[in-house]
What does this fold into?
Amino acid sequence: MVQNEVGFPFDCDLSEAHLFFYSGGNLNWGSYPENDSQYLVDYGIPDEACWPYPSEIKRYPLNTTSPDWQNRTVKIKNWSYLPEDPIEIKKAVMNNGPVPTYFVVYQDFWYYKKGIYQHRWGKLVAPHYVTIVGWNDNPGYWIIKNSWGKSWGDSGWFKIKYGECSIEKKSFYLEDVYGNFPILYVDDDNTHGPWDGSEDHPYQYIQDGINNAYEGWTVFVKNGIYFENLIVNKTLNLGGENKSKTIIDGNKNEHVIVVSSKNVKISGFTIKNSGSNPFDAGIKTLNLASNITIFNNIIEENENGIFLNYAYETSWNIVKENHIHNNQNGIYLHWSYNSDIFDNLIEFNSKNAIELESSEKTKISGNVLRSNGQCGIYLRSSSNKNKVNGKNQIIDNNLGVKLDNSYRNKVIGNNFIDNDKQAEFYNSRLNIWHRNYWGRPRFIPKLIVGEIKLIFSDINCLNIDWRPTILPYKI
It folds into this structure.
């Protein structure tokens, strides 16, 4: 409802813990949805940062919400019950948004994985509230969002047959959401103020939005050219209105964006003109558990487009659906673990499209790596246990893939097309090459020539793709 009111999705996150306990919830038996709904009318619910949901239920700190929570609440004007009628529930979903609803949980529901749920076995456990977000009349089921996390069910979702387990018995209609949504606006056209981050009075500069945002909020930047070097030192979502028209220009000075906090998301921007020192970047991470998500951006004319730096084994980073071009290096990973790099277009970079130094357990899949001056993918200095698979298009680079002192990597199911040299390795052992397309139909194994370092000299050595594909992969 909040995102519908704002007009675009922005990862709105409100405090379930605050609502649960302040409306009378109890860990022994739960809470009444009527009390929750009325609390939303009378007091509202603040953003997640006021009272973060703990990872373990026993760690609930009672009454520890932020003291200024009343200045940060989202409210509804009223609530009511919906008729026990699928037609009326569908109308409510279509016209007003997701519908909270009651149903009865039996033991077999705990084991749901996929398909349309119907109760088959087990005792009644308890009533449970979930959210109807859609439906399908053929064969007839509701599409439901549960609250048990993505590891349960179908990534946290389930389908249930119409009428099953009293699913339509008690549904709620929440009216007219309003209040302090967890979002701040920035617009460089607002040169004269006032500036409070509201949609009517946006900040002129992005850094002002970041500085005044609470943890977990969104800073939404309207189209314009922003000559700034940003420091993101808190968890937030940084979003641009249009990636071609919302431009952050570092004015050739060091890093354009430095991210020193974890769980940051950056999307919808053109990010350009970092400094020219070897470790300058369009986006650089400086957090040992960075957990950054970078998606749907244009990243150009930087020393390094993206620099993922010192992200250890507890971290993860996601880089997806970006156009990264005309930098020195497209993506550079340094001592970075557990990154997922997929569905990017990385082209015309002077050096490497993707370079890993001492980085492990990276997944590289579905990318187009084209016309880069050195390597499409370069793994070096103990970059081990990485997976280069999932139909990467490695095209027209000086060298497709190079492994240098790197071990136990897998290069599987990629297209190598029109590179000056398709692949090579140096002093790299126990790597697997399998089912790649090597620029033409092959009915015999593909030999990858390299060298292995011995004590007194280097010797020539071969890796082999025993089963190359005949036809290129399509993405």
